[in-house]
Structures are given as C-alpha cells and as structure tokens.
Amino acid sequence: MTEIGWIIVAPVMFITCVQINTASQSEPHYRWTTLDWLEAHNVSHELYNVTTADGYQLQLQRLPRPGARTVLLVHGLLGSSLGWVCLGPDKSLAFQLHQLQYDVWLANLRGASPYGRRHLELTDVMADFWRFSFHEHGTYDLPAIIDRMAEVTGGEQESSGADKEEPPRQVLLIGHSQAFNAFLVLCSMHPRFNQRIQLMQALAPLARLHGQVRFDSAQVRSLMKFVKKRQKSNKFEIFPPGYFRKRCQSKQDQCEYYTKRLAGSAQSNKRLLDAFNYEYLLQGGSAREIQHLQQIWKSGDFIAYDYGPIQNMQVYNGVEALRYNLSQISVPTILYFGETDAIATPEGVHGIYARMMSSVRSVRRIESPKFNHFDFLISSEVKTLVNDKLIESMEKFLEGKLSYIIE
Ligand SMILES: *[C@@H]1O[C@H](CO)[C@@H](O)[C@H](O)[C@H]1NC(C)=O
Ligand SMILES: *[C@@H]1O[C@H](CO)[C@@H](O)[C@H](O)[C@H]1NC(C)=O
Ligand SMILES: *[C@@H]1O[C@H](CO)[C@@H](O)[C@H](O)[C@H]1NC(C)=O
C-alpha cells in the first residue's frame, strides 16, 4: 500500500546505524530534547498545554518576544519541534528568528515525540491514538494551536492597553514536508484561518506526489508490506523509539541506502552524518499517515483519507474520499525545494504551484546541487542555504517588496 513509508523508514534506520558505529552517542547533545536545547543556551521559554477538540494534549513551546511578530514553526512527518533547534543557536531556525526579535512558537502535532503523545482518554499504545494523518493535524491540531497563540498574545495586548476589539494577530507560518499538507487541510476545512495566517513558507512540501516519488514500485511495495505487518501485529506507531537501532544492526546496507537517498548533502559530509544521531529527531509516524500519503501519490489529487466506499459513505457522504477544496486557500505562499529531494521533487513542487497559482508568490530552489528532504533539518549549511533565504523572503514580503520568482 504505502510507497512513501520506505522513504521515511530509511533515514531513521540509518540514524540508528550511525549511532552504533560512532562515538557520538556519548556526546550528550545528541540525546537532547527541544527543552534541553533551550535550557542549555539559556533561552527563556514558555510552555503551553494545548488540548484539541478530540482530546489530544500537545505541548506548544514559545521563545517569547511579547508584542513582536509571531512565527509558528511546524514540523513534518516523523518530526517534532526538535528539528528547529537541533543544530544549536548558530544554525537552527528557531534560535535565529529569536535573535532577530521574532516571537517564536514551536508546534508539536499529535504523534510527535515526546511532546504530542498525550490524550485525555487514550494512551500512545492504543490503536485509537494512532488513527490520524495530516488530515487531523490540519483539522484539529493547528486550529487549537493557532487559537491558543491568539489567546495568549491577545491577553498581552490587553495588558499593554491596546484596544480589546483588535482582531487576533496574524501568524507567519513556516512548515517542513507534511506540515504543508496540514496547512492546506486547515485552510480548506476551516477557511477562517486564511485571514489568520499572514504568510506560509513551505519547505519541501508533499502535497503533489503523483508520479513523483523517486523510488521504484518494488521499494514502495515493500514499505507498504511493512506497514501492514506492523498494523497486523497491533503496532500502530510505525517507527517507535529504538526500533531502528535494532533493525539496522541486521540490515545496515538497507539503512544506509535509504538514508543516502533522503539526505543528499549529508553524503559528502561526515559531520552531517553525525547529526543523524539525534535520539528524538525522527521517529513515530502512524500507519494512516503513511497510507494517506500513499493515497495522494496514487490518486494524483489532494484527497482526504480514503476509507473505502462503504465507510466513505458514512464519513464523507459519498463513495469517494473528499477532495479538499484548494480554491478556498488564499494565504500568500512561498514554496522551497531541493534539487535532489526524493519525495518533494522539483516537479512535484512545481505541480503544487500549477495548482495554486493564485496564492503562490514564489517558488525557490535551494542553491545546492544536492539538497534532499531531510537536509532541510540537518544540513550543516542550513543557515545560509535555507534559513537566511527564508527570513529574507519573509522580511521582503512584510515590506511589500517580495519579488515574484519561479525557479
Ligand atoms: C547559561 O547560564 C549559566 C548560569 O548563568 C551559565 O553558567 C552558562 O554558561 C550559560 N550558558 C550559555 C550557553 O550561555
Ligand atoms: C502540562 O501538562 C503536564 C502534564 O499533565 C503538566 O505536568 C504541566 O505542568 C502542564 N504545563 C502547563 C504549563 O500547564
Ligand atoms: C470551493 O471553494 C470555492 C471558493 O470558496 C467555491 O466557490 C466553490 O464552490 C467550492 N467548491 C466546492 C466543490 O465546494
């Protein structure tokens, strides 16, 4: 069933392999969580427990600058807020934005480890906990998070004597990978958020996968088989903590192969490979997340999760899965792609542009001959290749001077 599964599996496996082979595990920062990073660098932070309408309890983290422009960073598949801090204050985006006086918020969507794994009634070993894909990230998690931010910053406005009638402050959104899919769901299912998001910057967006993924069908089949097997044995989390370490001990070649396919610039940079050692950087993933991506890959359209005709009738009132109405989306959007990205390929990202011409303001190529899906998180060049560009575009946009560039 799932092609994309493999794609995702591989880097994680590799991470574990590297752990076995290097001494880096003894270096404590590979085991740090987001909060460890913030504490180690004396960055003051606030934590908020956000409860979604369907009972998930997500930790929202903030590097506060009350009154400043608000930026929300949203992680992608298998990620968490750690991806925005794990290269430290000199390189990672969250620190950089904070130094530039932005009010920085870090989302943790359901399933993210360790900050998105609580629920009012369920535990993270129950099947029901893992019945989600980016549909639920966009339908439940992002609205709860953005509303909570507005509540907090609105309260700060009041106490500074501002007009109570002022509308909620707009949010600048930055997302990696599947976060873009969640954003599309958010703005099509809850159109009021089109007014609440000032700008969306999407790194390696996944919404257009048809005919794009650079893996052959045998690889895809084997991934889908793997996902099914996990489900059959009631393991609904696809890559639980520690899984890859074990797996890569017996299948190291496989791990290395897939990791190379997914982190291009890491191939030639030993230090980058070290970065894969982070204990919490990539893990988790629900079977449904992977199946939903596979359905998009197969159908060529941006559809909601397809339960099959009978259950679709109950859920969507039709035999077919709901097609998200992308013409609802009016948020100005900038798309970024890596030349060698094996999942969010250049063609796939241009396909999103073709579909969303009215809201896409720029399509930018990362200026490197080898830049792949997970390089957006772990490339040692991420500051100059990605973050500086992203911040420059954002500032130009805010001044009304963003150039329309399609690369
Ligand atoms: C953080 O603060 C502590 C205590 O003031 C200090 O010892 C430490 O060097 C600081 N760390 C950094 C990275 O600034
Ligand atoms: C959030 O929830 C956790 C677990 O219930 C609790 O320990 C923590 O104090 C809460 N934090 C806030 C800011 O309410
Ligand atoms: C999609 O949204 C647009 C804009 O709001 C609306 O005009 C159109 O009727 C919608 N299409 C469907 C199929 O709901």
Description:
- The protein is of the alpha/beta class.
- The protein has a single domain (36-211, 273-398), classed as Rossmann fold (3-Layer(aba) Sandwich).
- Helices cover 41% and strands 14% of the residues.
- It is built from 15 helices and eleven strands.
- The strands form two sheets. Strands 1, 2, 3, 4, 5, 6, 7, 10 and 11 form a nine-stranded mixed β-sheet that branches. Strands 8-9 form a two-stranded antiparallel sheet.
- Strand 1 and strand 2 form a beta hairpin.
- Helix 1 (4-21) packs across helix 8 (243-250) and helix 1 packs across helix 9.
- The two termini are 33 Å apart.
- Mean pLDDT is 84; it is low at 1-25 and 269-273.
- The structure holds 2-acetamido-2-deoxy-beta-D-glucopyranose (3 copies).
Which key features would you list for this structure?
lipid metabolism, Lipase, nine-stranded mixed sheet, two-stranded antiparallel ribbon, disordered N terminus, alpha/beta, lipid degradation, Rossmann fold, 407 residues, AB_hydrolase_lipase, 15 helices
Q: What is the CATH topology assignment? A: Rossmann fold
Q: Tally of extended strands? A: 11
**Structural class from helices and strands?**
alpha/beta
CATH class: Alpha Beta
The name of the CATH architecture is 3-Layer(aba) Sandwich
Mean pLDDT comes to 84
Order of helices and strands: HHEEEHEEHEHHEHEHHHEHHEHEHH
Shape: globular
CATH H-level superfamily: Alpha/Beta hydrolase fold, catalytic domain
GO biological process, one term: lipid catabolic process
Domain Partial AB-hydrolase lipase: 38-86
Protein name: Lipase
Family: Belongs to the AB hydrolase superfamily. Lipase family.
